[in-house]
Amino acid sequence: MPAVADDSFQAVQFEVVADAEPGLMPRLLAPFARRDLIPDRLKTGRNGALIEATLAVDEMPSEMVHLVENNLRQIVGVRHLTVILGKVTRQVA
Hints:
By secondary structure, this protein is an alpha+beta fold. The chain has helices at residues 24-33, 62-73, and strands at residues 9-19, 41-47, 50-61, 78-85.
């Protein structure tokens, strides 16, 4: 019997470009914490006056993806947000 895919969870990666300012990182993490989610990976870097951040969750409840996306878009200073569904990035030493 073939395995049935579980559509209730999915891998999601949020790529954010925002103004570099104090307090940005807690604001980016708040939409996850509000829903008892912890990103599996968080990568940030400063590029001049901007912060580039990637927040990835390997198994996010599907119904929460658009909620987190909308919250991230509403953060003051966010200039660009890309949501990548179904991509799991693993770093190998």
